[in-house]
Amino acid sequence: MNAPVQKAFLAKRDHLDWLESEAIYILREVAGQCQNPVLLFSGGKDSIVLLRLAEKAFRPGRFPFPLLHIDTGHNFPEVIAFRDRRAAELGERLLVRLVEDSIRRGSVRLSSENQSRNAAQSVTLLEAIAEFQFDAAIGGARRDEEKARAKERIFSFRDEFGQWDPRNQRPELWSLYNARVNPGEHVRVFPISNWTELDVWQYIAREKLEVPSIYYAHRRPVVRRRGLLVPVTSVTPPRAGESIEEVMVRFRTVGDISCTCPVESSAFSVEDILEETKSATLTERGATRMDDQTSEASMERRKKEGYF
After folding, report:
1. Less packed terminus of the chain by CB within 10 Å, N or C?
2. 150 assigned to some structural domain
3. Do 245 and 185 share a structural domain?
4. Region 192-212: what's the mean pLDDT?
């Protein structure tokens, strides 16, 4: 390519093109360096974007890794249905491991039936990594979500206990990544680490990606608790003195029902969501996750214990 043509080509590439290229490069680095990787797929918007990036990186061939979801048993049914349908459409292998099974084995112990199982996913994930001997787990975490995630490398080293030590991470100069691990160790890889929530929705719009219906505005019974809208479900029943309201809401992030809250919204389309996201003053986790509201449940502590 001669210089004028190359210059014109580069001028046409927008920020989504650069982010996409970086993520595809990272996915191919995982495939090239790792013997047995896996891609974490929950049916949420970030992992939906990862699937499209994997398609662009590896199609028309099969993905060089299976998909894995750690199911708490307290997930929104719309998201689980979407997860299964999307994996079937792609023809890719979907592995599901249940927190409920970890509870039965005694490796997870909860103080009550309705206690949040969000943090307990760490145990089930580490059990799945040991079961299949995965040496890399690809996830959709982004640095803009939370302070602890902003500390993490794109290739995040985990020791033989699955733990993350922010002081024991490898340099990533000039986009050179090191996935070398000893038996029992692994890396977590975050191809969209440099993306923002707005980037994700702009990419969803550009690629015309389908997402679960709960990302769009709908009416749902909720109670107001500590500044959050808590969905009324069998897992999260109203407490004494709380009044149930029917509110037009949508979810900015999806996770365990016990800790994931919607926000008031009238966004019925991706274009509406883009406008809301541009004016948002809180991160999606800060605005919607009950387990991120207290210091004792800090993300950094959970990550050190093996969380995503």
Report:
1. N
2. yes
3. no
4. 97
User: Nearest CA to 222 among 263, 167, 177?
Assistant: 263
Distance, CA of 133 to CA of 57 (rounded, Å) = 24
Whether 56 and 169 share a structural domain:
yes
Per-residue confidence (pLDDT) for residue 168, from 0 to 100: 83
Eight-class DSSP state of 215: G
The confidence score (pLDDT) of residue 217 equals 98
pLDDT digits (tens, 9 = 90+) for 224-266: 998 899 999 999 999 999 999 999 999 999 988 988 999 999 9
Look over the chain and give the mean of its residue pLDDT values, rounded to a whole number: 89
pLDDT of residue 93: 98
Inter-helix orientation angle 45-58/197-207, to 10°: 60
Residue 62 pLDDT class (50, 70, 90 cuts):
very high
Q: Is 57 exposed, middle or buried (0-12, 13-18, 19+ CB in 10 A)?
A: buried
CB 263, CB 253: distance < 8 Å: no
Query: Which of residues 112 and 34 earns the better pLDDT score?
Result: 34
How many residues in total does the chain contain? Answer: 308
Count CB atoms within 10 A of the CB of residue 70: 24
Cα angle: 303, vertex 87, 155; to 5 degrees: 30
Whether 208 maps to a domain, the answer reads no
Rounded CA separation 200/132 (Å): 30
The domain tally of the chain equals: 2
Question: Does 266 share its domain with 120?
Answer: no
Q: Residue 255 has which token pair? A: 């996770």
Phi, psi of 228 (to 5 degrees): -115, 160
DSSP 8-state class, residue 139? -
Cβ–Cβ < 8 Å for 216, 263: no
Q: 161 and 46 in one domain? A: yes
CB 91 within 8 A of CB 275: no
Domain hosting residue 287, numbered range: 214-293
Q: Is residue 4 part of a domain?
A: no
